[in-house]
Amino acid sequence: MLISTKGRYALTIMEELAQFEKGCYMPLPMIAEKQGISEKYLESIISMLVKGELVETLRGKKGGYRLKRQPDSYSIGEILRVAEGSLAPVSCLEGEMTCPHADGCSSLPVWQELEKIINEYLDSVTLKNLIEQGGSVRRDR
I need a surface site. Which of 60, 123, 131, 132 has the fewest CB within 10 A? Predict the structure, then answer.
């Protein structure tokens, strides 16, 4: 499993929105400027966050983006799954795809357990934890 820039920037966007003035919409150019990230690239990521119902948007002069919920109600796993899709460590665990060798695969239980551990950990860390703890994130659960 490799988290792409898309996933990392999705977390960055969510952090920026969480730290912006409560209830206010943050313009995308402001996020791009603060983070030094291409506005065009951020547009594609923020549209995924809107479609995933993590962020809401308002068009117009005072428009922009803001979180739909409080930062403590978002897990890092939820955000990454919206941006990345599956967080499975191997392709045979992604979606409904069934490996034709699954019945005789001795390593399958290892990958299943690793996927479970990854998801449990990422779901135990909230956006609020990420903001408050910086680099040393504690689990909530």
Answer: 60
- The domain locations on the chain are 5-133
- What span, in angstroms and rounded, lies between the C-alpha atoms of 33 and 13? 12
**5-133 has CATH 3.40.50.2300 classification:** no
Pairing mode of beta strands 64-67, 55-58: antiparallel
* CA–CA gap between residue 39 and residue 136 (Å, rounded): 29
Region of 105 (left: φ > 0; alpha: ψ -120 to 50; beta: rest) is beta
Secondary structure of residue 21 in the 3-state scheme: coil
Give the integer Cα–Cα distance in Å for 21 and 87: 32
pTM here?
Answer: 0.86
Task: Tell me phi and psi for residue 129, to 5 degrees.
Answer: -55, -45
CB–CB of 12/35 below 8 Å?
yes
The residue behind tokens 């135990």 is 124
Rg (CA), the chain: 17
**pLDDT tens-place string over residues 60-115:** 888 999 999 999 999 999 999 999 988 888 888 876 666 777 778 898 889 999 99
Which amino acid belongs to residue 72? D
